[in-house]
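HUMAN: Please help interpret these tokens:
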Amino acid sequence: MTLSTAAVTWGIARRSLLLIPRLLSTFIPSLVMPVFFTIVFAGGFAGIANLPGFPAKESIDWFLPMSTLMGAGFAGITTGMGVARDMQIGFYDRLLVSPAPRRALLGGSLLAALLRAFFPMALVLIVGVLWGAHFQAGLAGVGMLLLAGLGVAAMTATWSTSIALRLKTLQAAPLMQVAFFLAVFLSTAQMPLDLIDGWLHDVARFNPMTNVLAMARQGFLGSVSWADTWPGLVSLGGLLALLLVFVWRSMRRVIP
């Protein structure tokens, strides 16, 4: 008998959430790292807002959205690490020989990543409120930030799950993380595009994460506009479509 796709999807996601207290070593970094990045960048580079042409009133307004997306991305990666652990101990093999729909196994990991992402994003936003970040667009700006964060969590979850299915070991975790770090820091994570010189300017210009960051930051720099939103949505949709193909092909490799 084929199990309900919705029931299996929720069951996989629920198990991932229930495992958080047992696997704090993989969950806590997704909370600590984005707060660490917020403090280090916004505090260490406080004078960056004084540069001519810098679009933010204060450094926290520029770095808070970046840190929020980093937290969401880490949440997605920890979901993939959970799949790698299940592959390593043999639990995932039991799921594969069950009548559970394969799309539900992937959907459960994706849903778990989205739910996990709310924890670090909420924590970073609290830090931003305490620091005095300027929420110039109000709830609309926060909504754009959360939408971008959920999109990043979905991307990193599909990427890390793909790697987990192919390599079947937790030792693949550095590969999951390095790819995300490169995608973020080779964009406008630290500086506006107009203030970046050399080869990094060219890379950041065509890096899809630049559009995603612009979408996430707009509510902290001014009002929310469609011109700053649609490139981010297109970038998220395109990357996620490619990664969904990648993760499905990875699943096909392990189906008995």
